[in-house]
Design a protein that fits this description.
21% strand, nine-stranded mixed β-sheet, globular, homotetramer
Chain lengths: 319, 319, 319, 319
């Protein structure tokens, strides 16, 4: 017994030491008591979507001078990249000739897809959790069913019309495209805003150009393998500006993989879980950046899919 | 032999007479030479979508005074009506716990649906034909593949921001809901516009309230069985005003079945095939009509599904 | 305080009494220590499928005299009944004309279905659990992934060729069809076997005719609403005879709802979870019963779907 | 005018000469009058399936000596090869805990797949045509609907129990696997049969081992890119022996591409269209060949999918 006790004691000592020497993760999720209820109130499901008010619409349209519309959505179909095993399969049905002297032919297609998580997509708050805890501490097991979520569904989002700001980090760094897993820092963000003479306001749709979108539909394997994007610090800085969403032309908005190999897509939790701020992925930003449009009316209409984790979207910038 | 010849002769005579007495259809599709090329030009795929120009945007936002957004899209999910055997099936996948100290849980769903033809939906020009001939005389067999159309796909539509006009025919007739297969006439349209003191302009999104939308999600069987809507004459009158689209709160925009039992949904051909004018079905108009909003900024963002016949949408009215 | 204390005490007393008077469930799942490991051994995934040995095949084919094949599988397609929200949707693709002077046309269809749980179907052991514990105490959370189970998948089943026995309970009771929620008892089973002069042997495919299959495709609403079938006692009796499977012409093999309103489909747990005996549902038994075929060679080939909970099948009786 | 006439004449002469020099296709589809009605009679939908009679069953089971079952079906799931854009996607639903004191957990999966054309698959007669003409001259446009075929559907096939013959061509040639696009000749077939001392009888399930199946799940890209298999001559020779089906371990049974670059998979038309003989693809033959089982009881149970072009199957050899 003494021998075993000795061995256990030594073993524990060694484990403790090894643990102490091992890197602590660079970021941890705040506790539930720290983050719930959210600033929008107990039971709130809309998070940053609460910024949508008539005044936001008026402020946005003030920015429209010429009526030019710049499409920010990628096309859905063959050639698009997929993260993991996702699909966007279209099956065009056989043509149906209706009865009637007007010989009316009808066509339609069956679409099989993770429609909330493909192409240019808005992430809702059911999409991510910390353990079983979502935004505003809704619990996965309490709100999930086989056909969707009973809380936090994307049908709650509604249309966004708000001031949009492009932070062209690639432009600021003088490159077409940031490096394969370059972490955008607070200094990058501040530097780009300063160079652009743009400032952030609460309720903004904050959109970051990494240039990574150039690979979309051209080199999909590389596009999904990794990407440049905001890191934890930049995300926390941006979230503190109280945006309605953070968006980018890469697939997760944030840098992937995270420089800290112990943590997996932490910005998804910072935005969606901790702060209830939407993420908007896989935007098409080449035209916006080339035209140096840094401030614009941002408009987006997520599909009202009951209980869904997100929605593919076709947003626009108008100026 | 003589007897048989006699019988055949008499039979032929009778058939001819019967045919002559039988009703000729009340409407026929114009010939190809009459309708092609369309007014937008040979090879044009966008039809009325060509109305989308910067000036249309500017004209539309002039109508925005308070910034109030009225959602015109129905929700997608359980309880929605389907025409025919269409589906909107959502399968929420099992939660995936990602590796990493931040214990990030991920959720997403598989959606199986005729996503171009469910809920509030925009019909594109691949959706309908006369025999094998579509808008601008594209031929079905030449442009169809198993995974979509190579011409006329809904990805060509793009965002619409334009003046929207509500023609509240139910309101004009002093009812909540028009009759189960009531045909809206030119007199109804003109009367409602006059009462509302609204006029139509080229490029308008013309939206007709029948009140039928009240049945959506409440009595789906009745909703899809038949419906009130514009007839051939009203459709031709409206199309002559050069709108960007015709929309309604029923499932086909037009009256169904058509009062002429020989023809099947002729307005679909008048709009989509003959004139290249989009149709927008299953709108949610109760709020717009209740608030008596007859003129507004109309905004819609169809999904950019390559080669699709249409897109479900979540459009809005802004004032 | 005294008053509240008094009230709480009385309340507690009453609750205790009410609880004592309330019915205890008529059956409970044996504990893990009682049922695991199964008689087939620790880590076994095949359960009763272990009965498939060459001798079983030889014994079965000895029963084949004329070579007559009686199909026991229902058709899959329109008109079939579904339990819950299950589907069997077929989408025939557009015909594809291959290049080549031989002008070869190709056709195929996309099928969207819970293919393990529709039509005549074999239940595997991943399909059911007690809390999180399956057959042989495999744990749901340890063996489930988004694309299937890593243990207990139906691909482990393999072909069955074995002696089959029909227990025609409806015939024994002198009716075409047993009552809507009639519970088949041990006496019914024994009586039918005696009348038929049939005995059970280990490894048998034991098939019970309730007559309920007559409603399949004819009155699907009634077919799925409830059904006659074996109850707990009959199931335990049958399982003690060591069959390879229990099958029936209804949708759950057992009586539904169970006469004890507190328990939900207990025979599913008795067979699949506790004893590792397969269930075979929605058989077509009218011909077998009409021809009074009580003993036959039973043959079934489940699809080898990796990690699936079951498989639709097209089994046969041969004599 | 004279000059143009001259030019046209010269041009015509040249074209004629060029055409005459160009290779005529090595095989053409017999005319409808030559092949319809089929030998099974006008309106017959079953083709070679008509060989299934009680005597075939008796003859087959005579071959069973030990009761050994050899599985001939490949598994369905991740890692399987697909020809073209076909899928076999499994989505395991979230576990559902049923109400009840017995805490019954339920699991099932949604499968999205061209289930008639994946894995080990039986081709039915709706699958292929010459222009619009199928087996027994059924016309595609007359028998096709959006949800399946009204004639020739695989639900007509029924179970097969018949004598099976393995023609091990790879074994005959002394190789593990024939060349990437090696055409199996009549001499190969006859040589192998002679070496094996096997003969063919009407109604046989004739199965050819190319060894190509070794690539299944191992090198799927190569597996589907091309393959060795029977050519036109061998196919015609085999069909003349009146088999119930021709099967192989490659994906089309025949050599692909065909040595004549002008024709596309002609054996599909020889078998399915001209002669109404089923094809059975992607068999797993390694065990059968290794054990040198040349004659056996062949058993197969296609799913009874109404109106489908084929069915995935899990057939067996029994001896």
């Amino acid at each position: 017994m003494q021998q075993i006790t000795m061995m256990l004691a030594v073993s524990a000592l060694l484990s403790g030491t090894i643990a102490a020497i091992a890197q602590a993760p660079s970021w941890t999720v705040p506790s539930e008591s720290q983050r719930c209820p959210s600033k929008w109130g107990t039971g709130d499901e809309r998070g940053s979507g609460n910024h949508m008010k008539p005044q936001a619409v008026l402020n946005a349209i003030k920015l429209i001078k010429t009526g030019e519309v710049i499409e920010l959505g990628q096309q859905l179909g063959g050639g698009m990249p997929f993260f993991g095993t996702r699909r966007f399969d279209i099956h065009l049905k056989r043509t149906f000739m209706n009865a009637g002297t007007n010989e009316r032919g009808s066509n339609e297609e069956m679409v099989l897809s993770e429609i909330g998580q493909v192409g240019t997509q808005l992430d809702g708050f059911a999409h991510q959790s910390h353990r079983n805890s979502h935004y505003n501490c809704f619990k996965t097991e309490e709100i999930s069913t086989r056909s969707g979520f009973t809380k936090l569904g994307v049908q709650n989002v509604g249309a966004f019309i708000t001031r949009g700001v492009l932070i062209d980090v690639a432009g600021f760094k003088g490159v077409e495209m940031l490096g394969d897993s370059y972490e955008i820092t607070v200094a990058d963000i501040e530097g780009a805003l300063k160079k652009q003479e743009t400032s952030l306001q609460p309720g903004d749709a904050v959109i970051i150009n990494t240039g990574w979108g150039k690979l979309y539909g051209k080199d999909n394997a590389r596009f999904v393998k990794s990407c440049p994007g905001i890191g934890v610090k930049a995300a926390e800085w941006l979230v503190s500006k109280d945006p309605i969403l953070l968006g980018s032309d890469n697939w997760p908005v944030e840098v992937a993989p995270n420089p800290d190999p112990q943590i997996s897509l932490p910005v998804h939790q910072i935005a969606l879980v901790v702060n209830g701020v939407h993420l908007l992925e896989q935007l098409k930003l080449d035209e916006l950046a080339a035209k140096q449009v840094y401030e614009f009316a941002f408009m987006m209409q997520p599909l009202k899919i009951q209980g869904a984790t997100g929605s593919t979207v076709a947003p626009i910038a108008v100026r």
